[in-house]
Design brief:
Layout: E1 21-30, E2 37-47, E3 52-56, H1 63-70, E4 78-83, E5 86-87, H2 93-103, E6 104-108, H3 119-129, H4 136-145, H5 161-173, E7 179-183, H6 191-206, E8 212-215, H7 219-222, E9 227-232, E10 235-241, H8 245-260, H9 270-273
Parallel strand pairs: 3-8, 3-9, 6-7, 7-8
Antiparallel strand pairs: 1-2, 1-4, 4-5, 9-10
Helix pairs in contact: 3-5, 5-6
The chain binds adenosine-5'-triphosphate (ATP).
């Protein structure tokens, strides 16, 4: 029997004014003793509903760790992470699994589709795992938005990389999550497919009201977002609204230069930016 389908904008416990996700003094330490690494150092950040945010920063700056901790994939060492009104550290492993399934959508660089299922079966798999039925109108909207109409019966091996990633985006959106986390979603795509995919992510925010947080190294990708947050050494060092690709590139070069010069420079990369 069809189950009632929660709307993304009004998920029971989360007032609209509340951010889709929020970290407060989030610290994540891996290892101990000589191998101890502080991947995130008291990070506080909010991701507003209906916005597209890029998370950028040099390799090892903590981008994936931030995403994993905020999505409930990795436990925090200290501090707080919330999805809507739910504090993740208060949840059991089982509750976290349910939260990830119901409130979070994921898009990974490697698509992560099941090879034996068709595109449509892959898209609706998270709902089936949660014992829910797809809402036909929303499923049509999502499939239409990512432009997969004629390919729903194909298996992943019969689709291009760009098409496979569109299936992954549709799968992330189909449960109307509170937030979609995308980790380098264009990393395995050629530039044209990547640009298309970013267009779909942006449309899912502008036209479908979703919230997307995307980890990326690519300034052109970040320019599709409404906001770019920069990490360096596990801390947020900049926060740019409506980022342009050249501004992002300039910031990246500056932070990379600071990183390699001990982190004390102020504008070391500027001269090479343009
Ligand atoms: N499971 C782990 N065990 C130990 N250290 C880890 C683990 N995961 C990440 N780290 C360390 O934490 C720091 C942040 O890593 P993270 O993967 O979040 O960076 P990133 O900015 O996503 O890097 P990249 O852009 O290269 O993917 C790095 O120093 C990394 O080596």
């Amino acid at each position: 029997m069809p189950q009632p389908f929660p709307s993304p904008a009004s998920p029971g416990s989360s007032p609209l004014t509340e951010p889709a996700a929020r970290a407060t003094d989030l610290t994540k330490v891996y290892g101990r003793g000589e191998t101890r690494v502080t991947a995130l150092d008291a990070v506080s950040v909010e991701f507003a509903r209906g916005r597209f945010t890029a998370v950028m920063g040099p390799s090892g700056s903590g981008k994936s760790t931030l995403m994993h901790c905020m999505a409930g994939l990795d436990p925090l060492t200290s501090g707080s992470a919330r999805i809507g009104g739910t504090e993740l550290s208060s949840l059991s492993e089982r509750q976290l699994t349910a939260l990830r399934r119901e409130k979070v959508g994921f898009v990974f660089q490697g698509f992560n589709l099941l090879p034996t299922l068709t595109a449509l079966e892959n898209i609706t798999l998270p709902l089936h795992l949660a014992g829910r039925k797809p809402e036909p109108a929303w499923l049509d909207t999502v499939v239409g938005a990512v432009g997969l109409g004629g390919r729903l019966g194909h298996r992943p091996a019969e689709l291009s990389g760009g098409q496979q990633q569109r299936v992954a985006v549709a799968r992330a959106l189909v449960s109307r999550p509170e937030i979609v986390f995308a980790d380098e979603p264009t990393g395995n795509l050629d530039s044209r497919s990547g640009a298309e995919l970013l267009g779909f992510l942006r449309d899912s925010v502008r036209e479908l009201g979703q919230t997307v947080v995307m980890v990326t190294h690519d300034p052109t990708a970040a320019a599709h977002a409404d906001r770019a947050v920069f990490l360096a050494d596990g801390r947020i060092v900049d926060d740019v609204h409506t980022p342009a690709a050249d501004t992002v590139l300039d910031r990246m070069l500056r932070f990379e230069a600071e990183g390699t010069s001990g982190g004390h420079g102020t504008a070391g990369g500027r001269g090479t930016a343009g």
